[in-house]
Amino acid sequence: MLERLTEIYQSQGELFAWVAASSVLLFVLSILSLPWLVARIPEDYFLSSESYSHTHQIRHPVIRILILGVKNLIGIILLLAGLIMLVLPGQGLLTILMGLVLVNFPGKRQFERWLIKQHAVFKALNWLRRRAGHEPLIEPE
After folding, report:
1. Tens of each residue's pLDDT in the chain, 141 residues
2. Listed residue (112, 114, 137) closest to 124, CA to CA
């Protein structure tokens, strides 16, 4: 068995190096960006079952569509990175949550509210907010 693993490693050494480098990069990026992103969530974001409306709506449709596209692209990247971090080092579940907050999809609001009601997730988000010097999120009923 050990011989077979050694043979696989020798034949796929470059692939293993890329996976290891990607893992380290994702781990560092998640540690640096996740607390910043969590701190930017408004305290009352999860209170309403209605979609959260931003007070600074951009009126020009082209700019609004571009921002929406970039926001969704960043969300998809975070979702994929979070899924990868479930098996590699990193804060996978919290990264997935941040990706879900950014991506638009049907039923998103109900899923976010269900997820935040999970005690471990809520506690972890507020721990990150506290470390960043922000008020805790208000827990939905």
Report:
1. 778 777 777 788 788 788 778 777 877 877 787 788 888 888 888 887 776 655 456 678 888 889 889 989 998 988 888 888 788 766 777 778 778 878 988 988 888 888 888 899 899 889 989 988 999 999 887
2. 137
**5 CB burial (10 A radius; 0-12, 13-18, 19+):** exposed
Which token pair is 113? 């509210």
Place of tokens 């998103």: 108
**Cα angle for residues 108, 113, 116 (degrees, 5° grid):** 120
Closest CA to 24 of 84, 79, 78, 89: 89
Q: How far is it, in rounded angstroms, from Cα 101 to Cα 75?
A: 7
